[in-house]
Amino acid sequence: MRSNFLNINKIILSIAAMALMGCTNLDEKVIDEVLGSEVADPEAALAAAYSQLGEGTFVDHGSVFALQEYSTDEAILPTRGSDWGDGGKWRAMHEFTWDANSDVVKTTWNQLNFGITKSLTAISSANKSTGANKALFLAEAKGLLAYYTYTTIDLFGQAPYRDPDNINAPIVIRKADTTIDALITEVTGLIPNLADIKTQNTHAGRFTKQAAYALLADMYLNRAVLKNKTAGTFNFTEQAVNGGGNDMDKVIEYCNLLINNPNFSLESNYFHNFDINNDTSKEMIFTIVQKKIASSDKGSDNDLAYMSMERSQKPSPDNRGTNASCVTPEFYYSWNGNHDDPRFQRTYQYEDGTWFRNDGTDVSVPSTSKVEGTGKPWFHFNRGLQVGQQYGPKILQNGNFDMTADGRIKVFKLFTEKNTTLAADFTPELNFDNPSEAVFTQAQINRGVRNFKFEFDPGYGNNGTSGMDVPLYRLGTIYMMRAEAYFRNGNIAAALADVNKLRTSRTRESLYNNAPGVAIASLDANTLFKESGYELYWEMYRRKAMIRFGKFDLPGTAKSTSQPYRRIFPIPQATLDASNDFTQNPGY
User: Fold this and answer.
1) 276 φ/ψ angles, rounded to the nearest 5 degrees
2) Please, which of 57, 193, 345, 514 could form a disulfide with 111 given CB 3.0 to 4.6 Å?
3) CA nearest 565: which of 547, 579, 545, 582?
4) E strand or H helix at 574, and its extent?
């Protein structure tokens, strides 16, 4: 095995078997994993494949998230004074200057290929098993392999594969244009052996029939792009791989199976989907389970919340943000006229009825909310897009919040931690001194509207761990995919109905009389693209949507017009140096 990412002769894996909670009585197992060997038992091997969804791959800001979001009009991580320079690797994702030596590209490639490798190991182990769960475990392992492979060919245009039952088999390079149809066929064939969600001890953290339906809808929606990602136009209504109808008909078919499933319903509080206790959300179809493993620091991450928060914003005396990522002006201004949309922002209410309005009118909030494990007071920042002057608690020299005489948390106007005379005033405009480079001076580090969509978990440190499960597919995703499929099939009325279902099913907090979102009267391609952003921002969906809607190559903040080859990332140079199996993608 010449390839450096599949050449895993021996990996010591500490596996949190909670990913298989309910059908395994393993608490924790350390195994020697050898691809294609009989060492790993089926449960442990499958747990390892699930665990790789975490381990930074889909939960850290610097891997799949960076490629799917920092390359778009939604998210940017600029250099802020002396912070976040890191050789320009974060700026490069938005400036479109990444190359085959990019550390972010290499990390993502390696993590996804670990997922492929661990899935192949799980398949091999399940094939050799004689246990009662053989067919189920085998189908789940193959489902995970399909998910990792699909993500890899979407980002990199190619992915490795090797027969899991033959340790001497050659590596096969699966190219996007041909592999997408094979993946659709493979996942379709898994459905009879997969469990329905909430049967056979399964939950949203397992690859169930419903996860397969969501993945199939996603693959059919993007099939035309994957067959020729650098094309000027895409044929979204090509004859489907299996059965009658076209690609969009299949998207609708699989979305219907989820929308009509009584296990799922839209949450009126949109932000509950991104709470620490979001495992109770009725929208979750396929997620990365973090809650059960956060305390052991295996594969869990707080980055989706931590990265946007200013260092002076402190959810507890032990926690802070890091003043890194923000949204672009393009994305923020796309919400013009929709600031009353329940998905834009949500104000936090404490148990005694106190609202944290974050507008300078609050002088204190109760300290009755406590951080689990420490018992220290928990200050709750508002959710969604945060703009303008920020307010919050201050830390005294003794390391505790500044409190009132009657034990409430004092609220102050905040200043940036690295420039204590600069107000933490988050501005929509970024205004880089050099418009082509995402670099701020120390006097500019407050700029950028921040995204607090995901709840900060103060129980396990700053960016180390989180108990929030990361949604990969939820019901809101499915409605949005079906709306786009209806639209591309020419059924504008049905597409509009789905968009309005998402809008009007969400309600604001009681401070605003629980007002539902407002329906729109008409729908065109640009409006549909904006609605996609309203529902799915920060969920690793934007890059694919921008490519489908013809937006990815356009100029924007710190980005000039880019060439179509940039829709695919390069194979890392380290991989090409170590292996003759791969060829570099065109343009690199």
Assistant:
1) -60, -30
2) 57
3) 547
4) helix 573-578
Confidence at residue 268, expressed as pLDDT on a 0 to 100 scale? 98
Confidence category of residue 31, pLDDT binned at 50, 70, 90? very low
The closest alpha carbon to 382, from 410, 411, 337, 349, belongs to 349
Tallying the residues shown for the chain, one arrives at 588
What is 281-304 written as a DSSP string? Answer: -TTEEEEE--TTTGGGTSS---HH
Helices (H), 157-208: 176-190
CB 67 within 8 A of CB 569: yes
Q: What is the rounded average pLDDT for all residues in the chain?
A: 92
Look up tokens 């994993």; give the residue: 33
Q: Residues 62, 230, 115, 146: is their CA dihedral positive or negative?
A: positive
* pLDDT the model gives residue 471: 98
- Name the token pair of 405: 């005489």
Q: How many CB atoms within 10 Å of residue 388?
A: 15
3-state secondary structure of 406: coil
Q: What is the pLDDT of residues 372-399, one digit of tens each?
A: 888 999 999 999 999 999 999 999 999 9
Does residue 26 surpass a pLDDT of 70?
no
Give the C-alpha separation, 479 to 491, whole Å.
Answer: 14
> What is the Cα–Cα distance from 444 to 475, expressed in whole angstroms?
39
11 - beta bridge partners?
33
pTM listed for this prediction: 0.94
- Packing angle of the helix pair 42-51, 103-128 (nearest 10 deg): 160
Quote the CA–CA distance of 2 and 581 in Å, as a whole number.
8
586, 565 in Cβ contact below 8 A?
A: yes
